Amino acid sequence: MGWSLDSGGSNKYLKFIIQNIGFLSLSLFLGPFSLTALDYYSISGRRKMGANASALPGDPEGSSSLSKPKLDDIPESCVALVLSYLDPPEIAKLARLSRTFRAASSADFIWLPKLPSTYPYILSKLSDQGTGDECKKDIFGRLCRPNLFDDGTKEVWIDRRTGGVCLAISSKALTITGIDDRRYWNHTPTDESRFQTVAYLQQIWWLEVDGEVDFQFPSGTYSLFFRLHLGRVGKRLRRNSENVHGWDLKPAQFQLKTHDGQHAVSRCMLGDLGNWVHYRVGDFIVEEPDALTRIRFSLTQIDCTHTKGGLCVDSVLICPSNVGKDLCYVDNEARKKVLGCRTT
Questions:
Q1: What's the maximum distance between 2 C-alpha atoms anywhere in the chain?
Q2: Contact status, residue 224 vs residue 281, Cβ threshold 8 Å
Q3: 113, 184, 211, 313: which could join 178 in a potential S-S bond, CB 3.0 to 4.6 Å?
Q4: Mean pLDDT, residues 30-57 taken together
Q5: pTM for the whole structure
């Protein structure tokens, strides 16, 4: 159950809870206050029960002698310390509560651990490298947005929740057999691609799509996907599946290799006509974040006993395996509906 921080009745209770948590946290980190956390909790509780306007028995001076604590009464350093334990989306929500929370949310020590360890390398790849005096929060926000590089053929961003690095590679950065022959392939503009264009296969006997990338990934396990579509796509979500043929006879083969000897192969019947599918090739592990990781990958269907056509090749996606789980789920569902898939 998530809290809404928009104005409304429930927001009063959320602020009440945060106020109490804030003062209790202060008592743990900074010691007793002139108004202790326990006193504040007791007084606030009585106010919520309707005792905020009159003195209670045993309280001769009355609670009105104490000014009502506000969110901005919590020291900014304490707020920042609490925020450092939260995920970025949670920090963004709490930053809207007050000026103190908003100011505290910009502390560099909050955002530095949430940035990927290779963020200086990523920034160096971008044409717009910033002013050099950006705070870590602004760098995080900039990297959460898709950033094109390598003449617009690649795009990098970080996952807003985990800070994981994601990389997309356009079909124009791939080596496709016959791509320069209009009888077989052409580049089709479409709004359905992050690169605004896809490679469309008219008809061919020998399908071979190869790619290679060198990139500095943070340590972790990554998954690689091909984003494919059976049927022609165009502007304004237009579809044409008349030319789709040859994919139900033999499986396509996907493969990846890394410079340190990791290898994955998967074979799958392409299907799910009219829908974009992320076909998972396999996983690889990065253990040296300070070095470039070289990955070679391919898609082939080289059985020359029949032609095949009507395939859109959009891009290759590399992302942390935990981020790619949703894509893998879509992929697996598609494979179940289409004759199944075997991975080695």
A1: 97
A2: yes
A3: 184
A4: 40
A5: 0.77
